[in-house]
Amino acid sequence: MTEELDPKTYPIGKAQNRVFTKEVLYQSILMVESAPLRLRQRIATLNGPELELSYRNGGWSIRQIIHHLADSHMKMWIRFKHTMAENNPTIQPYDQDKWTNSADYQSAPIESSLMIFEGIQSRFSNLLKNMSESDFKRIYTHPEFNKKFTLGEATQLYAWHGLHHVAQIEGVFK
To answer: Are 93 and 144 in contact (CB under 8 A)?
Structure first.
């Protein structure tokens, strides 16, 4: 029996963890590269009050999602860099809901977070294109889940993550 997903919460479904092949890498890179442009295109005409709209009752506002994308992908970037430089590092988790309730998420202009997201995604794409097969097998430990993740798994997760939140924003206006 398949789990029924709320299309407002998971407009593109849940993240898939497939066997990491060159095709999966290619698809992941396309997802990483397309997310910032899709985000910019979708929010280009929004005004202040529209940034406070949410994709579902009790969900984050568009403004919060944009700031979350910048912060989450910065955390991802640091996790990747630690994993490339260290053997099986334990990454630092964070409470994303507490972060989205911080003052800057409520009031900071979105442009700085858009630039961060664009920059991180560009660097991430470049890194992915230059990693070796063995690099994608490198592992970090996530203490919150008590689980080890390969960089191949993390690549797929964060490729999905950007488009997941962009699709949530797109869903506000459907």
So the answer is: yes
Q: How far apart are CA 27 and CA 54, in angstroms?
A: 29
Checking if the pLDDT of 81 tops 90, the result is yes
Q: How wide is the angle at C-alpha 94 spanned by C-alphas 29 and 124, nearest 5°?
A: 20
Would you list the domain boundaries of the chain? 22-172
Cβ neighbours of 25 (radius 10 Å): 19
Structure tokens at 164: 């997941």
Please tell me the predicted confidence (pLDDT) of residue 174.
82
Q: How far apart are CA 88 and CA 148, in angstroms?
A: 8
Tens-digit pLDDT profile for residues 148-174: 999 999 999 999 999 999 999 999 998
Pick the CATH number of 22-172 from 1.20.120.450, 3.40.50.300, 2.60.40.10, 2.40.50.100: 1.20.120.450
The whole-model pTM stands at 0.95
